[in-house]
């Protein structure tokens, strides 16, 4: 590409940063990074009634957690009102916009009449100036809206970088309101002015904006601005094939952080929602940027698969350094009022458990037993703590008083007891696991003993014998 690439992510702070928005941000960010361009963050906060500071912060937090750093911004539309009014005035002066005094009641009656005739409800241009048309006097006490004078003939055509060629007849578009009665500019107009002023070369966004694009292109042309390239991403479906919604999982991207997902895993997973590089499933952020291009995005809907995300997250956890995992798990335990200093070093436990979990919360669940007093469920005690097991564990505790506290020596001690009592490993190891951590499955029992420490092991076992 000859021109410097400039992309943007422009969320509305009326809610949190969702998976769909995060994927849009990721693709816009990656496209800019791939071509050595700039990525701009813009907060479209003109919906004053629904926009909140908390939602703005949630968007910024989500972007920061995912590592999608912007080169410029965040810019806030509410701080650019003077610029939008200036652009509206420019269109009015050129005769490319006009004042419309139709009241809400008049517009409702107009649409009802159109529906009754079987027509598509739309503004009928009653206040649109035409060469041979005489407009009535503006009614007293009615503040006008400003409408864009949309071209009448021809079509709006663009080559969408995901969906291909799209053509919309201008006859299908009525005259859009670009400023409300109080002078506040509307969404479609603010977007156009922002993209123009910020030099956006590629607009990458969800395909719910396809219907806005012909209107925005016409306004850009009226302003004398260069039209950017457009790429409309198909929606993301839930596990069940329906449109992704709150009931399919996390409300916010930050909920994935709370639920124990690594940002690297979420980025990797989002990258594969509608984009591919051959059969590659697991790749770094740097590899993704190197490979990414809009030509490899599928125009069909992507389907969210929680099971696959969990699998991918498990791989990233397994590949993470033990000290990095320990720092995260330590904070998760602390939030549960569990003191991570009250037991063995967390680093050692990470190596034991990290290949057995798919989230950091599961990892915290698994190691919590090393730091709290464990009370095994009675049904597990009834099932596994038989008289035979009690006898063997009694002798094991005696042996554990003096054995060297190394994994090798502990394993040898268990085998001695097994041989003396004529038992197999599960007959000793499973009841021992139940008494130590309250679960019949753990990593290798000798490793668990070594990590837990002599005093805690003997204390937990002997109180049930």
Automatic annotation (TrEMBL):
Subcellular location per the Swiss-Prot or TrEMBL entry: Cytoplasm
Gene Ontology terms, MF aspect: ATP binding; glutamate-tRNA ligase activity; tRNA binding; zinc ion binding
Domain Glutamyl/glutaminyl-tRNA synthetase class Ib catalytic: residue ranges: 5-311
Residue ranges, compositional bias (Basic and acidic residues): 114-135
GO cellular component: cytosol
Region (Disordered): 114-142
Enzyme class: ligase
Segments carrying motif 'HIGH' region: 11-21
Pfam families: Anticodon_2 (PF19269), tRNA-synt_1c (PF00749)
Coiled coil: none
InterPro entries attached to this UniProt entry: aa-tRNA-synth_I_cd-bd (IPR045462), aa-tRNA-synth_I_codon-bd_sub2 (IPR020751), aa-tRNA-synth_I_CS (IPR001412), aa_tRNA-synth_I_cd-bd_sf (IPR008925), Glu-tRNA-ligase_bac/mito (IPR004527), Glu/Gln-tRNA-synth (IPR000924), Glu/Gln-tRNA-synth_Ib_cat-dom (IPR020058), GluQ/Sye (IPR049940)
Biological processes, Gene Ontology terms: glutamyl-tRNA aminoacylation
Domain Aminoacyl-tRNA synthetase class I anticodon-binding: 339-464
Keyword line: Aminoacyl-tRNA synthetase, ATP-binding, Cytoplasm, Ligase, Nucleotide-binding, Protein biosynthesis
Binding residues for ATP: 246
Sequence motif 'KMSKS' region, location on chain: 243-247
Enzyme nomenclature, EC number: 6.1.1.17
Catalytic reaction annotation: tRNA(Glu) + L-glutamate + ATP = L-glutamyl-tRNA(Glu) + AMP + diphosphate
Assembly behavior: Monomer.
Function of the molecule: Catalyzes the attachment of glutamate to tRNA(Glu) in a two-step reaction: glutamate is first activated by ATP to form Glu-AMP and then transferred to the acceptor end of tRNA(Glu).
Sequence similarity: Belongs to the class-I aminoacyl-tRNA synthetase family. Glutamate--tRNA ligase type 1 subfamily.
Xref: HAMAP family: Glu_tRNA_synth_type1
Name of protein: Glutamate--tRNA ligase
